[in-house]
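Handoff note, outgoing to incoming analyst
You'll be picking up this chain. Sequence as last confirmed:
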Amino acid sequence: MGTVTPLPFHGRTAPLQTGFERPELMRILDLYGRMVAAGHWRDYAMDFHRDAAIFSAFRRAAERPEYRIEKRPALRNRQGMWALVSEGGAILKRGDELSNILAPVERKLLKLVGD
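Most recent structure output, in case you need it:
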């Protein structure tokens, strides 16, 4: 018997991890910076897995993230690869465009700055 080779994934091997592209990360970090300046967020974390890249934003470091911004490329042709997840784990918004996913958080920022 010979060795077993991995099956190709759409003409290539499956990625070892999913990440954010530079423009995506710049957009997310811009929002994060504005939320920090408004005094609402204080910490963040990024997790990179085979099937997802996750940006988590925290009000305080010792708690669950207030929001998670998830990128799951495998869902691109289904529900959309972007998701905004609440602290409780509920999916607040899902879609193909990062800007649409960030819109509810940006509206919250406008309220914070307006107060």
